[in-house]
Each structure stands twice: as structure tokens, then as C-alpha cells.
Design a protein that fits this description.
Blueprint lengths: L8 H17 L4 H35 L13
Helix pairs in contact: 1-2
Length: 77
């Protein structure tokens, strides 16, 4: 992941999907699989952080508008 340009949520998800596909193929050498896994975990954290940030912004907007009903992002298990 480039330090110069932070990925958008969509870009991170696309990269994560490619990594998952490669790992699911099963014919990746161990060292490369570990690198893919580490990159995938970093991308997953980035996506999760972006979603939390959006959730916080939406809660702030709702509070500013006087809308008292809060929402919560449901995580898949």
C-alpha cells in the first residue's frame, strides 16, 4: 500500500478481493501467501477504520439535525 496516497474504501476493497481470490486458489508459495495475508489484514483494517469514521460522521450529522435515532453497523459473522 502506497504511503503517498491513501486508498479509498472502494480501492481497498478491490485489492482485498484480489488477495482473497489468490489465497483461495491455494497454489501460492508460503512466503507469498504470508505477504498476501499481511497486506490483506492491513487492507481489512483500513476498510474497517473508514467504516467506523463514516459511522461517527453520520451520528454527528444526525445529532446536529436533532434526529435521535442512532444506528449501528452490523458486522457479518
Amino acid at each position: 500500500m502506497s504511503k503517498n496516497k491513501e486508498l479509498t474504501f472502494e480501492e481497498a476493497m478491490e485489492k482485498l478481493e484480489v488477495i482473497v481470490e489468490k489465497l483461495e486458489e491455494g497454489d501460492v508459495p508460503l512466503e507469498k501467501a504470508i505477504n498476501y495475508y499481511q497486506e490483506g489484514m492491513n487492507l481489512s483494517k483500513l476498510c474497517n477504520d473508514k467504516l467506523k469514521n463514516v459511522q461517527e460522521k453520520m451520528a454527528q450529522i444526525m445529532n446536529e439535525q436533532g434526529d435521535l435515532e442512532e444506528f449501528d453497523i452490523q458486522e457479518e459473522e
